[in-house]
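hey
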């Protein structure tokens, strides 16, 4: 099984308001990301919340996910990864680290990454679009201790740099793998791309 750790604890400094709960499509940014994961074959979804947790917990809890509180999100993304990993099922073969502000990655893309992970012997799977890397990233269970040892706002980049020989890049037709919603401008761009996708 593969467990998804969804990082949604940020304080949205650049947005100026809590972005997780901003409208997106027919719901919110966070709900869209969760629905994309629910539309895939991941076996469980652990949503890590932090800033203004009460409202985010209420929204996430309406879905069939496990919600975990990061009590110290100011210390960076690593604390959310650690909180999420400590809550995943002990039988998980791998961990998919997903970002709560990337709502354009649909279930098909997620399934493609999982399929490639199962069909190769590489321990780190990273999606690419036109040669540029993005998220979500899959880490095999053997990297659990290294993920738990992360400190600061580094995410999994340090582990990726230390294990270049164990990386499988998977080319996907999805610009959303590196489109984060950090500002009002990026939110507008992603909303426009969603509308174009729905019209196809």
């Amino acid at each position: 099984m593969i467990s998804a750790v969804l990082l949604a604890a940020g304080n949205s400094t650049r947005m100026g308001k809590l972005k997780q709960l901003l409208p997106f499509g027919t719901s919110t940014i966070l709900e869209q990301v969760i629905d994309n994961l629910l539309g895939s074959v991941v076996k469980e979804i652990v949503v890590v919340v932090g800033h203004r947790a009460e409202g985010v917990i209420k929204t996430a809890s309406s879905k069939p996910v496990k919600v975990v509180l990061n009590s110290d999100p100011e210390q960076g993304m690593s604390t959310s990864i650690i909180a999420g990993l400590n809550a995943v099922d002990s039988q998980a073969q791998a961990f998919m680290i997903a970002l709560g502000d990337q709502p354009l990655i649909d279930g098909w893309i997620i399934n493609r990454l999982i399929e490639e992970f199962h069909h190769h012997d590489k321990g780190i799977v990273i999606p690419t679009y036109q040669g540029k890397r993005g998220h979500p990233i899959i880490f095999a269970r053997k990297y659990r201790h290294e993920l738990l040892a992360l400190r600061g706002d580094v995410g999994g980049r340090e582990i990726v740099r230390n294990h270049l020989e164990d990386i499988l890049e998977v080319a996907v037709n999805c610009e959303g793998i590196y489109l984060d919603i950090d500002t009002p401008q990026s939110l507008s761009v992603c909303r426009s791309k969603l509308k174009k996708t729905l019209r196809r």
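The helical segments are 29-38, 53-60, 77-85, 107-119, 144-148, 157-162, 184-199. The longest strand covers residues 2-8.
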